[in-house]
Amino acid sequence: MCRHFAYLGPEEPLGRLLVEPRHSLYRQSWEPRRQRYGTVNADGFGVGWYAQADPVPARYRRMGPIWADPSFADLARVVRSGAVLAAVRDATEGCAAGEASAAPFAAGRWLFSHNGAVAGWPRSVADLARTLPPAELLSLEARTDSAIVWALVLNRLRAGDEGTQALADTVLEVAAAAPGSRLNLLLTDGRTITATAWGDTLWYFSEPGRHIVVASEPYDDDPHWHEVPDRTLLSATPTGVLLTPLKDLRDDMASSPTLGSARAGAPPSPEEPST
């Protein structure tokens, strides 16, 4: 359910990244090749990107399918960026519709997407929701499982966790509360990409020193795409990719109150995000 995509590298037009490839995210909205759950991603879409010298990303989101939005073609043709996160949505049953439900979610310098579903939502994560400050619960963008997962991640980022630790802890916590959940998360601050493979497909394409792409599925048939094993945390920059089994992190959590940032391959901590 859903397909998402992140890119770091030289500036490119959004269309070259999201529309032109033979099996681009645009095409995956109606014809995904590797999606395990659902067949059409027509319940909204969104694109977030960073401009030079501005750490706070811009977003363009709509509640309808990406192929039905005539304005997106113009946007994709002229907007250029070296840091992009985009998603097309197949809504989880029982979740709210609307533009606010479409990824990427954002706060401060962060962009976030969730591909999957929280099993038993909303009751299964009610106890986790109670751990959030009331103001954050009242500020949720949408009544969706992805929005509550983002709130849990963001709460950790605001507490000082690095992106790798925030994603890993959240996935393990939600998976324990709601077994059977699919929790492929994608996070960027415009300098790094952090992602999890938990229940659905995740791939990356890296040209070290030039660019990195992390996506639900390859946008072409280049043999240099690498599939990320299930239950894995990915941390990437244009200079390299680090994969860490989430099982190892779960074992670390059992013996330590925090995850070691060095073990998780975390980059230097960014500025604290703000809404």
Automatic annotation (TrEMBL):
Domain of life the protein comes from: Bacteria
HAMAP family: EgtC
Alphabetized PROSITE patterns for the sequence: GATASE_TYPE_2
Region (Disordered): 251-275
Originating organism: Streptomyces chiangmaiensis
Function: Catalyzes the hydrolysis of the gamma-glutamyl amide bond of hercynyl-gamma-L-glutamyl-L-cysteine sulfoxide to produce hercynylcysteine sulfoxide, a step in the biosynthesis pathway of ergothioneine.
EC number(s) recorded for this UniProt protein: 3.5.1.118
Pathway terms, separated by semicolons: Amino-acid biosynthesis; ergothioneine biosynthesis
Record protein name field: Gamma-glutamyl-hercynylcysteine sulfoxide hydrolase
Phylogenetic lineage: Bacteria, Bacillati, Actinomycetota, Actinomycetes, Kitasatosporales
Keyword Hydrolase assigned: yes
Signal peptide coordinates: none
Transmembrane residue ranges: none
Location of the Glutamine amidotransferase type-2 domain: 2-275
Cited PANTHER family: GAMMA-GLUTAMYL-HERCYNYLCYSTEINE SULFOXIDE HYDROLASE, GLUTAMINE AMIDOTRANSFERASE DUG3-RELATED
